[in-house]
From TrEMBL:
Sequence intervals crossing the membrane: 12-30, 50-74, 94-116, 136-156
PROSITE patterns in the cross-refs: GUANYLATE_CYCLASE_2
Organism: Chryseolinea lacunae
Keyword Electron transport: no
Family annotation (InterPro entries): A/G_cyclase, Adenylyl/Guanylyl_Cyclase_3/4, Nucleotide_cyclase
Organism superkingdom: Bacteria
Record-linked Gene3D superfamilies: Nucleotide cyclase
Protein's name in the database: Adenylate/guanylate cyclase domain-containing protein
Pfam family for this entry, one: Guanylate_cyc
Alphabetical UniProt keywords: Membrane, Transmembrane, Transmembrane helix
Domain Guanylate cyclase: 184-313
Keyword field contains Transmembrane: yes
């Protein structure tokens, strides 16, 4: 099986290929409508075949879009992480466009050589290539490629800002009609956050918070978690029941986040004078999931499980532990886990008492 982070990366790459594939088909059909039964391009005199174009152009576009998406998701996106939304799209569009023009030039030389049945170094192949690249037809293609690239990046940025899979769920209408599902929730809260903010100032505290959330993100993705929302210094993580139980993902995610912060401890101390820590509460239950809002739509969860999880997390200070897990969830998880029962306890706003567990260090 693919690792959760790998699956997440693939799901982010696929839209690039699909967007380029769709735009290439539209372009090919428009070109056919304009050229009709012509067998060569009027601007350059290069051979034209609709059959060849409709087969080759979408295939090349799909491959190019997928390669662009792979570079974007695995590498280039990280270089522009500090830029604004608009700057990211503009800068990366121009960068990708420069790379694409280079490859387009190479492909055009090859295509001309094949079409003319001559060497790629022949004068005719290069003359026809230059004729194309100096024509209005070429620059119309460049503008179209820029549009495809911009739309791809816009989709990726909006999807990233909305959250994992949220934009896709809007498009598919998955939660347009509310559905009931069973989920695991983990509420994480930074320890001594108010003190940190007062000591370092709110601007510097915000900078630390941004790095803190960034360091927590990778472990969440590695363990199939979905970031539901950020509330101040708190982050709410959710799993579909199967994903959260698989390999004890919900618990191992918590432990992996602890390790991630520990590895960055020296950097936090150097830059902010403190090393952030957190506490968390986990619970499982049914929620109703659906779209809500008019001028600002969101996909939200509603159900008692969210309030209960928040209350469980709030008891971490009472028991002086970093993690608390409800009995219903603890029973579903797979051994081995070094559980320690903390007894039955009432939760504010809840009549029914709940047995809580923590995990002792081995």
């Amino acid at each position: 099986m693919l690792r959760p982070k790998t699956r997440n990366n693939i799901s982010r790459i696929i839209p690039f290929g699909l967007i380029w594939f769709f735009f290439s088909i539209v372009y090919t059909l428009l070109e056919r409508g304009l050229l009709g039964e012509l067998t060569q391009y009027p601007a350059t005199g290069n051979p034209y075949s609709f059959t060849g174009t409709i087969l080759i152009t979408p295939a090349i576009a799909l491959l190019t879009g997928t390669i662009l998406g792979t570079v974007e998701v695995l590498s280039l996106n990280k270089l522009f992480i500090q830029r604004t939304f608009t700057q990211k799209i503009l800068y990366k569009t121009f960068l990708y466009l420069a790379i694409i023009i280079f490859f387009l030039f190479t492909l055009t030389v090859l295509a001309n050589a094949i079409g003319l049945q001559q060497s790629v170094f022949s004068r005719a192949a290069w003359t026809n290539t230059w004729a194309f690249f100096s024509s209005f037809a070429f620059w119309s293609v460049v503008i179209y490629i820029a549009a495809m690239t911009g739309v791809s990046l816009f989709y990726a940025e909006v999807s990233e800002n909305l959250g994992q899979g949220v934009l896709l769920n809007f498009f598919t209408g998955r939660y347009h009609t509310p559905i009931e599902e069973e989920r695991i929730f983990m509420f994480l809260d930074m320890k001594s956050s108010t003190t940190h903010a007062e000591n370092m100032g709110h601007v510097k505290y915000f900078q630390m918070l941004r790095e803190y959330f960034a360091d927590l993100t990778d472990p969440i993705l590695q363990h199939s978690g979905e970031i539901y929302q950020y509330v101040g210094d708190e982050v709410v993580v959710s799993w579909k029941l199967r994903n959260g139980l698989h390999d004890n993902n919900c618990i191992n995610c918590f432990l992996a986040m602890k390790d991630a912060l520990q590895k960055q401890r020296d950097n936090y101390l150097k830059n902010f004078g403190v090393s952030p820590e957190f506490k968390g509460g986990l619970h499982v239950g049914k929620v109703t999931t659906g779209e809500i809002g008019v001028i600002k739509k969101e996909i939200i969860f509603t159900g008692d499980v969210l309030n209960t999880t928040a209350r469980i997390q709030g008891l971490c200070n009472t028991f002086q532990v970093d993690i608390l897990v409800s009995e219903p969830l603890a029973k579903m998880l797979h051994a081995p886990l070094n559980w320690k029962a903390l007894g039955e306890h009432g939760l504010r706003g809840r009549d029914e008492k709940l047995i809580l567990f923590t995990i002792e260090s081995k």
